[in-house]
Amino acid sequence: MKLKDRVAIVTGGSSGIGRGISIELAGEGARVVVCDLVERPRPGKYHDRDVTAPTVEALNAMGADGLFVKTDVSDEAAVNRLVDRTLETFGGLDILVNNAGVFALGDSQTLSVEEWDRVMGINLRALFLTTRAAVPHLKQSRAGRIINIASVHAFHGGGGPAYAPAKAGVVNLTRDTAVELASHGITANTICPGYIETPIQDYLTEAQIAEAAEKTPLPRLGLPKDIGRACVFFASDDAEWITGATLPVDGGWLAPIW
Ligand SMILES: NC(=O)c1ccc[n+]([C@@H]2O[C@H](COP(=O)([O-])OP(=O)(O)OC[C@H]3O[C@@H](n4cnc5c(N)ncnc54)[C@H](O)[C@@H]3O)[C@@H](O)[C@H]2O)c1
């Protein structure tokens, strides 16, 4: 077990990728605090249609420890309470996974300013809030880790005027965090998922999903566990000398020149 008894917070841990990350971390012995707006997994139109058990129930069924804390990551007071509950329950904090995120359809003419602010608030500003609250406790850990989930949209246009710049911001926020915290032995790294089968994809058409599969060189779409395994790597001692790095986990999506 690579993460025995380490304590992790996973934001957006009830559904999709965050659920997959929670399960993989717990499978390596971590105690996982699942933070989300809602406890029940969100069933998707295309993916995760039959997932119904809350993540902590799934962790307990594996024999692992877990705790759900209802939290809006864009709310500073709620984030501070999340970290307090983690310390009260498990006595420390070793791993912070900033995964919660939302997508909003629209362009410069159709996306409202309120929606732009909401996407930025959850996808970028919230990472500042959780990091700020977690760092004093990560400094007490012998293996403090911050893992931020961005997207392949961090590197190219086409993700919309809020989502794409928020994710690009996550990549550079992570580098800055890495520089700030390196002398404390804390690492900070980014994972950039390609198309992963989760309910976030509900806004797509079946034709767009088929196109995504075609654009992915490896012959399948991604699964939450693919991101979960990359998180296990960054959280483990195997990655103790890796910080400020950006890892696409995208089935090769970013590799071709076209
Ligand atoms: N699925 C993909 O193809 C894909 C690709 C690239 C990046 N990502 C990123 O991965 C992350 C997870 O996405 P997903 O596909 O699992 O989405 P999802 O919609 O399936 O799950 C997101 C989870 O975050 C929670 N959440 C939303 N707003 C929150 C808030 N304010 N506070 C706390 N929790 C909140 C939701 O309740 C939900 O459980 C996001 O940051 C997303 O941008 C996903």
Written account of the structure:
Helices cover 39% and strands 14% of the residues. Helix 3 (76-90) packs parallel to helix 4 (113-138). The mean pLDDT is 97. With 258 residues, the chain is of the alpha/beta class. The chain has helices spanning 16-27, 55-61, 76-90, 113-138, 163-181, 206-215, 224-235, and strands at 7-11, 31-36, 66-70, 95-98, 145-149, 187-193, 246-249. The longest helix is centred in the middle third of the chain and has 26 residues, at 113-138. The chain is built from 7 helices and 7 strands, in the order βαβαβαβαβαβααβ. The site of nicotinamide-adenine-dinucleotide has 28 residues, from helix 1.
Structure, briefly:
The chain is an alpha/beta fold and 258 residues long. The chain has helices at residues 16-27, 55-61, 76-90, 113-138, 163-181, 206-215, 224-235, and strands at residues 7-11, 31-36, 66-70, 95-98, 145-149, 187-193, 246-249.
